[in-house]
Amino acid sequence: MSVLLEVRGLRTAFHTSRGKAQAVRGVDLTVKPGEILGIVGESGSGKSVTCMSVLRLLKRAGRIEGGEVLFGGRDLLTLSEGQMSDIRGSDIGVIFQDPMSSLNPTLTVGEQVMEVILRHRGGGKAAARARTIELFEMVRIPSAATRIDAYPHEFSGGMRQRAMIAIALACEPKLLIADEPTTALDVTIQKQILSLIKELQGRLGMAVLLITHDLGVIAEAADRVMVMYGGMVMEEGPVARIFAAPRHPYTQGLMASVPDPRTAGEGRLAPIPGSPPDMMQPPAGCPFAPRCPAAMNVCDAEAPQLYAAGAAHRSRCWLMDPDAPQQGGAA
Ligand code: SF4
Ligand code: MG
């Protein structure tokens, strides 16, 4: 199989008392088996909502209004909630930013790993306990055999995230979705968790969808990167290429706003002047136009498509189109 996850034309909105926020506006993405795809963008760009849509874990006000989410050839959007919860935790593992809120404070960490194994894999308690110890060793929690009986509050933040990784990988998923997995941790621990994810990805051969607002995390861990803004994919391509030769003004702005994006944890996105679009009334044209130093008349009027910018590299910008109407006139 050449593609593990394929998202086509995903549109997700949140219905609020103020109106409808169009958080994701036509996102296409593919993840191949064994690759790490990074999604980077400022908060509100639609990157988390894209992943929550794939997992069908949107908050109640959220609704998927269009598109397909093909995982191993099946459209996840057509499955029942029961079928979907069989997939979450077995074929697709998930880790979030804050491991404390994902762990149950009243159960030992080991019980929570065992619960996942028993739910998806069956077998007896003794086997699940043995497997839990193995998993703790795999994520390098020291003294695994005794630490599995500790409660979440007895773990440090980094150890809790290791435990979350153990839960996510308990059933050897084909895909791990990691939403800001290192954001809540301090820089040293961030690097350890990131290299653990990368090492386990190599060892288990799973694919990873890695969401972050940190270019350093992308530089260190991802094979390919998708840059999101205003609910759309602005640029995508191999990481080395995007860092060496970003073509989209937004990506170029992100790169310029950090001193050295190749340093994980120190490559957090500094704000580009201006503010992101109001998704209640998303602009008809390029969502980045009000902040873009290169904006032209056409940019406000019409949204550009994703143009080829080289091998596996695409940029959603009118600058890529030699025939762009009204080129040159600054808006
Ligand atoms: Fe800037 Fe226009 Fe390109 Fe948007 S389409 S990024 S406004 S030049
Ligand atoms: Mg988020």
TrEMBL record:
<protein>
    <submittedName>
        <fullName>Oligopeptide transport ATP-binding protein OppD</fullName>
    </submittedName>
</protein>
<dbReference type="GO" id="GO:0016887">
    <property type="term" value="F:ATP hydrolysis activity"/>
</dbReference>
<keyword id="KW-0067">ATP-binding</keyword>
<dbReference type="GO" id="GO:0055085">
    <property type="term" value="P:transmembrane transport"/>
</dbReference>
<dbReference type="GO" id="GO:0015833">
    <property type="term" value="P:peptide transport"/>
</dbReference>
<keyword id="KW-0813">Transport</keyword>
<dbReference type="InterPro" id="IPR003439">
    <property type="entry name" value="ABC_transporter-like_ATP-bd"/>
</dbReference>
<dbReference type="InterPro" id="IPR003593">
    <property type="entry name" value="AAA+_ATPase"/>
</dbReference>
<dbReference type="GO" id="GO:0005886">
    <property type="term" value="C:plasma membrane"/>
</dbReference>
<keyword id="KW-1003">Cell membrane</keyword>
<dbReference type="GO" id="GO:0005524">
    <property type="term" value="F:ATP binding"/>
</dbReference>
<dbReference type="Pfam" id="PF00005">
    <property type="entry name" value="ABC_tran"/>
</dbReference>
<comment type="similarity">
    <text>Belongs to the ABC transporter superfamily.</text>
</comment>
<keyword id="KW-0472">Membrane</keyword>
<keyword id="KW-0547">Nucleotide-binding</keyword>
<dbReference type="InterPro" id="IPR017871">
    <property type="entry name" value="ABC_transporter-like_CS"/>
</dbReference>
<dbReference type="InterPro" id="IPR027417">
    <property type="entry name" value="P-loop_NTPase"/>
</dbReference>
<dbReference type="InterPro" id="IPR013563">
    <property type="entry name" value="Oligopep_ABC_C"/>
</dbReference>
<dbReference type="InterPro" id="IPR050388">
    <property type="entry name" value="ABC_Ni/Peptide_Import"/>
</dbReference>
<dbReference type="Pfam" id="PF08352">
    <property type="entry name" value="oligo_HPY"/>
</dbReference>
<feature type="domain" description="ABC transporter">
    <location>
        <begin position="5"/>
        <end position="255"/>
    </location>
</feature>
